[in-house]
Amino acid sequence: MQRGKQSKPERRSIERRVSGWVPHRKPLYDVWFQTFNQNYSSVQFNYQAIGSGGGVTQITQSTVDFGASDAAMKDEELAKLPAGSKMLHIPTALGAVVVIFNVPNVTDLKLDGDTVGKIFLGKIAKWNDPAIAALNSGVTLPDQAMLPVHRSDGSGTTNAFTSYLNTVSADWKASGIGAGKEVKWPVGQGADKNDGVAAGVKNTPGAVGYVELQYAVQAGLTSAKLKNADGNFVAGSTAGVTAAANGALKDFPADFRAQPIINGPGADTYPVAAYTYLLIYQDQKDKTKGTDLVAFAAWALTQGQAMEEGLGFAPLPKDVQTKALDALHTITSGGSPIWP
Q: Does residue 15 surpass a pLDDT of 80?
């Protein structure tokens, strides 16, 4: 951690732009980029908000300077990088994926992995299905058809949610649909981005979908309490995500490419949590832009952490924060460290 306390890389005063893409944890990056620019006005971040699927293609092809993904790159994606290059995954935050619903007069709903899997497979098609009713004693569930709403674009949100389904739902696992940024959904309606799914659920009585926690809050949508590994029904929250991350620290990989944290132990653990990453080439062709990226990442890993909870995210565990700061010292330009 001592290295992380050193002064930030020197920045020049001339104005320049760093281009990249961010996933649909965009509200966090919006605030970070704006706040960083207020302090260092010569650096302008020009970025697109697209799903992790399309974004990974851009960073792989080196058409942008950086990326930010809600899903770690797979081995086959890393294999497409330019020969001799290496991509660093710098964790910056933790988020929850929640199940949102639009059921008239129902504001408190409990679901377990079995029911969620059956809903998105089309095996549960009405809200008063006996399986849902059994979990929600005292709740009047309507005889209303369901409309599952899912992402139509590739995304880390889908990767985390389908990883959850593939872990906790025997029916989903048996279906062979699997987990990933894009899957072949058997039923339902597709929508672009998290805000598209949120709008689709909000505007359609009977709809159910999955989004990042902050999009549910922004849309004023209620999310279900999900049954965790300890048998408790837990609402999506930054506290629940923090509990999940702390419980999985022993499994945090050396290359930082952590899988979504699914159904981890702990009474208060929320069962669908995931890291979000800055994707940065270890050796930067443009030293000036590389210096800006390292400076921003160091700021996000220190001062930026205090902003996360207010935006629906959880700060990094201290041990992960320390490792991420150490990784920034390995970024080079022409083989020489940018931040020695």
A: no
**Cα 130 → chain centroid:** 32
Domain ranges in the chain are 3-93+274-337, 96-256+258-262
Superfamily of domain 96-256+258-262: Periplasmic binding protein-like II (3.40.190.10)
Alpha carbon separation from 60 to 55, 282, 287 (Å, rounded): 9, 13, 19
Q: Is the dihedral of CA 50, 120, 95, 215 positive or negative?
A: positive
Tokens of 232: 């408790």
Is residue 74 within 8 Å of 250, Cβ to Cβ?
no
How are the residues of the chain apportioned to helix, strand and coil, as percentages rounded to the nearest 5?
40, 20, 40
Task: Give me the sign of the Cα torsion angle 311, 313, 315, 321.
Answer: negative
* CATH 1.10.1040.10 applies to domain 3-93+274-337: no
The residue type at 140: T
Closest by CA to 277, choosing from 109, 52, 115, 10, is: 52
For residue 157, what are its two tokens? 């949100």
pTM of the model: 0.88
Question: How far apart (Å, rounded) are the C-alpha atoms in residues 25 and 276?
Answer: 8
Cα 115 to chain centroid distance, Å, stands at 23
Tell me the average pLDDT across 1-6: 41
Tell me: the pLDDT tens digits for 261-277?
A: 999 999 999 999 999 99
Number of C-beta neighbours around residue 100 at 10 A: 24
Task: State how far the Cα of 164 lies from the Cα of 73, in Å rounded to an integer.
Answer: 18
* Phi, psi (degrees; rounded to nearest 5) at 160: -65, -45
